[in-house]
Amino acid sequence: MKASEIITVIVKRFVTSKNVKLDLKSRICFSTVIKTERKAYVFIKKGFHAKRNTTLHAIGGTIEIGENVFLNENVKIVAHSKISIGSNVTIGPNVVIYDHDHDVKGKNGFVTSPIVIADNVWIGANAIILKGVSIGRGAVVAAGTIVTKDVPENHIVKQKLSLDMMESIYKGDSNDC
Q1: Each residue's pLDDT tens digit, 55-75
Q2: In terms of residue numbers, what domain contains 87?
Q3: Which residues are catalytic?
Q4: 116 in a domain, yes or no?
């Protein structure tokens, strides 16, 4: 058996649909899942690396991933519309990227809007990227940030956390250490 045949057999273990185009120069851990439903597509270029428990799930939408993209452990990317990730992007562990919300009025099931992540973007651990946002070239999304608006290129975005509650709990307690 040739090396390319072995790689093809290994890739078939992760891919649950014929609508997935994956460059053979990719590294995928065994618990990674790439699947499509309802005429959806996943396109992955060379140099892709996915650590364990990563899920790429296109449900009637498209996921496009550029060259040299790294997805750390437990990354979840779900597309009902379109999610486009540029080249040389690094995504930290436990990041969630959804191009949809549930339709709370119950009419259509989901409200969708595409997501675009440009080249050379770094997304920190536990970030959440929500529908309709664009993240510009060279941008950094800090760990734990929930992105609901566009991020300009070469900018850093971080979640502003308030310590008001912590301060009010200890306010006036001079006997505590």
Answers
A1: 898 988 999 999 999 999 999
A2: 3-170
A3: 102
A4: yes
How far apart are the C-alpha atoms of 57 and 17, rounded to whole Å? 10
Cα–Cα dist 127/23, whole Å: 27
CA distances from 157 to 149, 151, 152 (A): 10, 7, 9
Q: Give long-range contacts, CB 8 A cutoff, 24+ apart: 47-50.
A: 47/23, 48/22, 48/23, 50/26, 50/75
pTM of the model: 0.80
Residue 113 lies in a domain: yes
The CATH number given to whatever domain includes residue 81 is 2.160.10.10
Q: Looking at the domain assignment, is residue 129 inside a domain?
A: yes
* Residue 62: Cβ within 10 Å count: 20
The rounded distance, in Å, linking the Cα atoms of 165 and 145 is 19
Count up the domains in the chain and report the number: 1
Rounded to the nearest integer, the mean pLDDT of the chain is: 81
Q: Does a structural domain hold residue 95? A: yes
| Mean pLDDT, residues 73-84 | 94
